[in-house]
């Protein structure tokens, strides 16, 4: 078995390079490595949320105070954020998101499918530019592109990491 | 019950903000935003016309970015309830410069005075304490405004307070609506010009 490509390290090095000092999250399995890197780095703050839409306030407040932050969440969490996504947008505060997709490639759990297949549609509908990516080697550069759009233009941008990259959680079954 | 609440919100907020001494204010949508504007316009108020539930998260994000500034989230009970879990995030991050004041009229005043969850059952200070915000204060008289100001603007944070305000008929006081304009003048007042 070959070791899976380490896209988390690519994203983390972009986080450092771009002075993103805070990462807000409700975790997902696919984000574990990235979140551990954030947690272990003394200069980057991990903010654990009670629900994902809080992050739209936190990133806006952080930007008002002159600092960069971002959000990491599962595609289901996008559904919790829709109204809140209007908040950074109306102030043109950058809102950068990394979203691990569920409910698509080989999904075991049918309860994830409705939100998974609507994620990109609803994000685009509320004005978030989506950057879907399904090759692990391309996650880092895609994240860099989304970050540039968000922080340089004051836009909301989401990198959607395909379930093909993360793998479906099998709950012990094939 | 709010029928017995005595504090008049406009005079109370005006007296309180008169003592804020550079504290940046993140008012919740609607009534608390009108109260701030009625107290006298300032670029240090981030007026809000939407994003219900985001007053405390926004104040938290700002408090973490600007540790040397004092930050006040000034919101209503309905708005606070919608973002109630954010009190857990505040307790977890524990910024020493963050204060929260809920203007608790026990109703959704802005939308027609429908009864709210703090009217008969929920006690917001106990909820905040349960989340781990150790310093709380419940105010029921206008006369406590000085003590409340010391608590909100000086005590080591995070601190949480409620003021039991009356349901009142106050004239509309509508500030600028353009979010970009509100945010930019806030950032300019803070001396921030980059992301
Ligand atoms: C997500 C969402 N739901 C409902 C509303 C409608 N709304 C506007 S203000 C408000 C309630 C405000 O109540 P509270 O925070 O207690 O303030 P008050 O006016 O009573 O001082 C509501 C429900 C909204 N703007 N957004």
Brief write-up:
With 174 residues, chain A is α/β, with parallel strands linked by helices. Helix content of chain A is 45%, strand content 20%. Chain B has helices at residues 9-17, 31-38, 55-65, 77-82, 86-93, 124-131, 145-154, 179-190, and strands at 24-27, 71-76, 98-104, 107-108, 114-115, 135-139, 159-164.
Layout of secondary structure:
The complex is a heterodimer of chains A (174) and B (195).
Chain A: H1 7-17, E1 20-25, H2 32-40, E2 45-48, H3 54-64, E3 68-74, H4 75-80, H5 82-91, E4 95-100, H6 113-125, E5 129-133, H7 139-153, E6 156-161, H8 163-166
Chain B: H1 9-17, E1 24-27, H2 31-38, H3 55-65, E2 71-76, H4 77-82, H5 86-93, E3 98-104, E4 107-108, E5 114-115, H6 124-131, E6 135-139, H7 145-154, E7 159-164, H8 179-190
Parallel strand pairs in B: 1-2, 2-3, 3-7, 6-7
Antiparallel strand pairs in B: 4-5
Bound molecules: thiamine diphosphate.
Keywords:
heterodimer; A: 174 residues; alpha/beta; Rossmann fold; six-stranded parallel beta sheet; globular; B: 195 residues; five-stranded parallel beta sheet; two-stranded antiparallel ribbon; 8 helices; 7 strands; binds thiamine diphosphate
Molecular structure report:
The complex is a heterodimer of chains A (174) and B (195). Chain A is 45% helix and 20% strand. Chain A has a six-stranded parallel sheet, with helices on both faces. In chain A, helix 1 packs parallel to helix 2, helix 1 packs parallel to helix 7 and helix 3 runs parallel beside helix 5. Chain A starts with 6 loop residues before the first helix and ends in an 8-residue tail after the last helix. With 195 residues, chain B is of the alpha/beta class. Chain B has one domain: Rossmann fold (3-Layer(aba) Sandwich). Chain B is globular and about 45 Å long. At the A-B interface, strand 2, helix 3 and helix 5 of A face helix 3, helix 5 and helix 8 of B. The structure holds thiamine diphosphate. The site of thiamine diphosphate has 18 residues of chain B, from helix 4 and strand 4.
């Amino acid at each position: 078995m070959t070791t899976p490509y380490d896209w988390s390290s690519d994203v983390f090095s972009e986080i450092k390079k771009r002075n993103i000092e805070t990462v807000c999250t409700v975790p997902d399995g696919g984000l574990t490595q990235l979140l551990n890197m954030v947690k272990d780095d003394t200069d980057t703050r991990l903010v654990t949320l009670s629900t994902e839409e809080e992050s739209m306030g936190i990133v806006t407040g952080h930007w008002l105070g002159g600092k960069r932050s971002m959000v990491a969440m599962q595609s289901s969490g996008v559904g919790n954020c829709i109204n809140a996504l209007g908040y950074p947008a109306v102030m043109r505060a950058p809102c950068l998101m990394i979203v691990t997709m569920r409910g698509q490639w080989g999904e075991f759990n049918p309860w994830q499918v409705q939100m998974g297949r609507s994620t990109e549609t609803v994000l685009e509908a509320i004005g978030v530019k989506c950057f879907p990516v399904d090759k692990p080697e391309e996650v880092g550069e895609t994240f860099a592109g989304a970050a540039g759009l968000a922080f340089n233009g004051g836009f909301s941008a989401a990198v959607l990491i395909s379930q093909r990259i993360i793998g479906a959680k099998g709950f012990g079954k094939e | 019950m709010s029928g017995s609440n005595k504090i008049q919100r406009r005079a109370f907020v005006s007296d309180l903000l008169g003592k804020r001494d550079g504290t940046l204010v993140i008012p919740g949508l609607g009534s608390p935003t009108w109260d701030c504007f009625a107290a006298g316009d300032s670029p240090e108020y981030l007026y809000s016309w939407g994003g219900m539930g985001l007053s405390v998260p926004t104040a938290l994000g700002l408090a973490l970015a600007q540790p040397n500034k004092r930050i006040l989230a000034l919101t209503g009970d309905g708005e606070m309830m919608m973002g109630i879990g954010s009190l857990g995030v505040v307790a977890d991050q524990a910024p020493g410069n963050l204060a929260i004041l809920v203007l608790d009229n026990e109703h959704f005043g802005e939308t027609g005075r429908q009864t709210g969850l703090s009217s008969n059952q929920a006690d917001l200070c106990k909820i905040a304490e349960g989340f781990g915000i150790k310093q709380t204060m419940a105010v029921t008289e206008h006369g406590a405004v000085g003590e409340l100001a010391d608590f909100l603007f000086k005590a080591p944070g995070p601190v949480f307070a409620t003021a039991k305000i009356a349901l009142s008929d106050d004239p509309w006081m509508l500030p600028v609506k353009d979010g970009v304009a509100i945010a930019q003048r806030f950032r300019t007042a803070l001396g921030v010009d980059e992301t």
